[in-house]
Amino acid sequence: MDVQTHSGNLIANTATMAYRNLLKTVHNPDRFMDVIIQPVLFMVMFGYLFGGAIAGGVQDYLPTIVPGILAQAMLSAASGSGSQIREDLDAGIFDRFKSLPMAHIAPLAGQLFADSLRLIVAAIASLSTGYLMGWRPAAGLGWVVVSALLAIFTGWALSWVFVLLGLLAKSASAVQSFSLMTMLVLTFVSNAFVPLKSLTTPLRVLADLNPVTYVITAVRQILATGGWTPEALVVLAAGVGIVIVFAPLAVWAYDRN
After folding, report:
1. How far is CA 18 from CA 121, 238, 245, in A?
2. What is the pTM of this model?
3. Ramachandran region of residue 92, left (φ > 0), alpha (ψ -120 to 50) or beta?
């Protein structure tokens, strides 16, 4: 009974903390923009500005840009985890949580659960915008969902990395600056918006080593073939590996703070 009670309290406390973090996202324009406004804006802007120059037209460019914007949205949503948890630490919110009769790990678990919901919203915003612009994947709706779930899981796995960064960093502004720089470099030095063959040799080497390139390639192949590909298995395994490595480190840093 004690174990059941403890588990019930942990779930209830985690749900409460997740709800709190979601409210912060809704009432904070910057975080709300990362989840919805940014993927919509980038999809429209990149599609109509560069579609003709890169692919000869918007419709021909959408199969390239939709997975790219999806990956960028996942990375952007995941990167907000670190700054959120650092802001709470700097504001002393976690000190208040310690005095409450709640599960010790609930604030961290609530943050990661809220992140998964933010990632789902960002994925829906990205894919819906592409659909409204005329994107029609060769695979059916089921495989669109599969590709979105793969991207969401990858983003959630990366959330652990950014949470660890937020727990170890000195300030929220430092986390935000590093997260923004990381997001821009990883998405633009990849195959998110342009074919790899169009890059110079040094950039091509960096893009080939970029993990975001593998995620985008896996999503594109699923959407094009309507099947599970070896690249998708590699991305899934890499996501599991990231969680195995960084989740214990994040919990350690959380206990340390």
Report:
1. 15, 26, 23
2. 0.88
3. left
